[in-house]
Amino acid sequence: MKIGQRSEGVMKVKREVPPAGAFTKLRLLMWKNFLHQWRQPIKTIVEVVLPVGTMALVLILRSQIEPTTSDVSRFPPISAYSLNYSIPVMFNMNFQKLSVAYSPESPILEDVVRSAIVNLIRHNIDVILDLIDRLPGIPDLPPIPPDLILNSTEIFEVLRNLINVQAYNNSAALISIYREEEYTREVLAAVEFDDNLAGTTTLPDDLSYSLRFPEKPRLNSFYGTGGRSWRTNNVFPFFQMPGPRFPHSWEGGNDPGYVNEMFIALQHSISMELISRQTNLDLENFTVNIQRFPHPPYLQDLAVEFLTYIFPLFVIISFSYTSVNIVSAVTTEKENQLKEMMKIMGLPTWLHWTAWFLKQFIYMFLISGLLVLLLKVNWFTNEDGFSEYAVFTHTSWSVLLFFLTLYLTCMIFFGFMLSGFFKKASTASLFAGVIWFLTYLPAFLLSMETEVPIIVQTITCLSINSAMSYGFQLLLSQESIGGMNWGNFFSTHTLDADRLLFGHVVLLLCLDCVLYMLVALYLEQILPGTWGTPKPWYFIFQKSFWCPSATRVSDIRSNGVETDTIVRENEPRDNEIGVKMTTSR
Predict the structure, then answer these.
(1) In angstroms, rounded to a whole number, what is the distance separating the alpha carbons of residues 267 and 467?
(2) Helices 320-335 and 302-318 sit at what angle, rounded to 10 degrees?
(3) What one-character-per-residue DSSP string does 109-127 give?
(4) Helix (H, G, I), strand (E, B), or coil: what is residue 70?
């Protein structure tokens, strides 16, 4: 309490105003930030209209592709010997040097391979002859007797002599044959038996073999179609979709194309030859067919399959302007010395960042709710009167709101981090827009390949838009089987352990938030801007950073001279007086 001057017998008392608390400062900072947003109406309108307009394009796309109900899918049987679906592959093979390799070298094993290939050709003689007529450069065949019967021993021996079989000493030499690209067109396949059978003349009772084909399927090598690998590590597709894979393909499609690549036919031919020799039975008339399982009726929604790949790009475009504005606003404070002035007045750093975060979070949460409304409401009715569908028909609205809010929260921290690299707001805005789209590049490149190790997927999720892309792809893929709910964040349709699940993406986005904010706080110390005092880059490794109370402050003295004579300026005596106070009353 301070006692002022006496006036007419009344004593005036001045009360000391208590210092403003943290909550009061936070309210003032929030008021300042919202006032700054209010004074930029065009930016505010664009930040709202751009996400809404982009999602409106998604709604238009959704309305143009209506879901349809498909009946039971049934597929006819196919002969296991059939090469009818392998003509494109055979058409690009080098028939002049075409051969079949095997290991280890053995007379009986070579005879098995030759006989198996002959049986395969005999069951597909029409396909082979038609292909020979269309292929140029086929070597001249020996004259065929006019009275030759197709299944006679004579034609069997003719074909055996035409087949080129190459023997290798062991499996190590055999596996390496496809290292040279040219052998992909010259060696049909490699049959690998146990190396202990080298030189054997009789077949053991316990016998196994492996078929070696090129690492990259030939359809993809020759035409760029089908799968880029054999998918041997996958039991189920990476993204589960309604209905059968390749619903119009009797043989099961070309990803992977075990029928198209002649794997099934060659495997069946060799197996039948081995069984025939072991049992001493003639299996010429024994028929084996392959047939796809029927599939029950399902709802075919091509829009969901299409949006699985392009919806993340719509989200990135929706918030590109907002992300740039966050970086620009924070950098502007640093450029105009406002941040340093508030620090001089005693504003803690955590209050500064908290105020910016709360302002942006409230703003982004309202936009998230608006987008969830657009994506969850059933706006459409198809020609059959079906109206129970939206962009996210089955996904819980709370899950969608949670994930979208988490993504936008991560975007706020990402903007804070980027602002620490720049001193000028104009430069920050330019680079922020470019970096924003570049963060989607890892997910875009990896989307072309499904067999990606989980460690690689995890590393790419450190990029905000790559993590968002994985998350929305998993959400949309779950649409066809009931939608994503709170109980199945870590559930999967497959037994494969190395799968990135939706719950993993959520955890990685939370980790991104922490990492981005820590980087922002670190950059604030070493790159404070033109008007700040930077700390050395290694300050986090100093003892004073982790144990500030242990730092001893010593008296500032130099050669026994008092501090006052060093830091205090002497009063001027020869200058003209401008303002002079003669009394304090």
Answers:
(1) 42
(2) 20
(3) HHHHHHHHHHHHHHHTHHH
(4) strand
The angle formed by the CA atoms of residues 370, 375 and 379, to the nearest 5 degrees, is 110
Q: What is residue 138's DSSP assignment?
A: P
The terminus-to-terminus CA distance of the chain in angstroms comes to: 19
H-helix segments, 423-488: 425-438, 441-446, 454-460, 464-479
As a residue count, the chain comes to: 585
**Mean pLDDT value of segment 166-193:** 89
d(C-alpha 327, C-alpha 329), whole Å = 6
Q: Which amino acid is residue 321, in one-letter code?
A: Y
What is the full DSSP assignment across 223-279? HS-S-SS--TT-SS-SS--SS-SSTT-TT--STT-TTTTTHHHHHHHHHHHHHHHHH
Beta-strand relationship, 68-70 and 78-79: unpaired
**Per-residue pLDDT tens for 149-178?**
555 555 566 566 678 899 999 998 898 888
**pLDDT at residue 459, rounded to an integer:** 93
240 in Cβ contact with 493 (< 8 Å): yes
- Please tell me the pTM assigned to this model: 0.74
CB proximity list for 185: less than 8 A, separation 6 or greater: 92, 93, 94
Give the relative orientation of helices 22-38 and 349-376 as an angle to the nearest 10 degrees: 50
Give the residue extent of every domain in the chain.
22-67+301-510, 78-298
State how far Cα 318 lies from the chain centre: 19
Residues in contact with 84: Cβ distance below 8 Å, sequence separation at least 6, in sequence order: 124, 127
Instruction: Report the DSSP beta bridge partners of residue 102.
Output: 167, 191
Residues with Cβ within 8 Å of 162's Cβ and at least 6 positions away in sequence, in order, are 141
Per-residue pLDDT of 367-407, as tens digits, reads: 999 999 999 988 776 666 666 778 898 899 999 999 999 99
DSSP string, 283-347: -TT---EE-PPPB--EEE-HHHHHHHHHHHHHHHHHTHHHHHHHHHHHHHHHHTTHHHHHHHTT-
pLDDT at 46: 93
Helices vs. strands in the chain: H and E counts, helices first = 22, 10
Query: How many CB atoms are located within 10 Å of the residue 453 CB?
Result: 10
Q: Which two tokens stand for residue 523?
A: 């950059």
